[in-house]
Automatic annotation (TrEMBL):
It comes from Kribbella pratensis. The keyword Transferase applies. Gene3D superfamilies: Vaccinia Virus protein VP39 (3.40.50.150). One of its GO terms (molecular function) is methyltransferase activity. The keyword Calcium does not apply. This is Methyltransferase family protein. Residues 68-160 form the Methyltransferase domain. InterPro entries: Methyltransf_25 (IPR041698), SAM-dependent_MTases_sf (IPR029063).
């Protein structure tokens, strides 16, 4: 019987965290998956269902606009956004994830690149009309989440939209009670993506179709 992918990914993450390398486990996991010795739990072989629903509801027209996909993984979310006409950039800290995305989507229009959310390229702030962040901030230890949230918000151009999808946790659940990854986001953390000119315009909490006890956020923000 094969080991639970979540257990494997947590073990790989714990080894990285024990070396004081909180982001190195992404490459270790994707590399192990490429070798067939692990499975990336969030790699669904399709775009995230909540992103699909948002696209269906909002019907965004990306013609003449730019988009950034945070934590691209193997590219499914980026491909959906590119299909809406956006000039789409998608990044991941894992070179193997990016190599896999390029291999999975050989005719892609997406600009895939390796980059670090905690130290992003200097020309990215306020550069994208649509920014999509799915499950990346929650994959970082809680102490690093405020910095990650700050960078995600900074990517949004004036008049642009930010979409955040994340697992939810109760505000009264203490940080030390969470054995991540992931470290699901509280309502306060979701609200912290907003700033003086980046407004939260929609916040939906819904149960996972796989496990009704697992709640998820879908939050949309607009930069004035």
């Amino acid at each position: 019987m094969s080991e639970d992918p979540d257990v494997v990914s947590r073990r790989i993450a714990r080894e990285s965290l024990d070396r004081d390398d909180p982001t190195g486990w992404f490459e270790n996991l994707y590399a192990a998956a490429a070798e067939g010795s692990a499975v990336v739990p969030w790699d669904r072989g399709t775009a995230h269902q909540l992103l699909i629903e948002w696209v269906e509801e909002s019907a965004p027209d990306g013609a003449g606009k730019t988009a950034l996909i945070v934590g691209a993984g193997t590219g499914w979310d980026a491909e959906l956004i590119a299909d809406r006409g956006y000039d789409t950039t998608a990044f991941d800290i894992s070179p193997t994830a990016i190599e896999t995305a390029v291999r999975n989507h050989p005719d892609s229009k997406v600009h895939y690149r390796v980059a670090d959310l905690l130290a992003p390229p200097p020309d990215w702030p306020h550069a994208f009309d649509l920014v999509v962040e799915i499950y990346t901030v929650q994959a970082l230890p809680i102490a690093l989440q405020p910095e990650a949230v700050k960078h995600v918000g900074e990517f949004v151009a004036p008049g642009g939209t930010l979409l955040v999808i994340a697992a939810a946790r109760p505000d009264d659940q203490p940080d030390d009670a969470i054995e991540g990854p992931p470290w699901p986001l509280t309502r306060a953390t979701i609200q912290s993506f907003a700033g003086a000119d980046l407004r939260l315009i929609q916040l939906i909490q819904s149960p996972s179709p796989v496990d009704a006890t697992v709640l998820r956020w879908r939050a949309e923000y607009l930069r004035d």
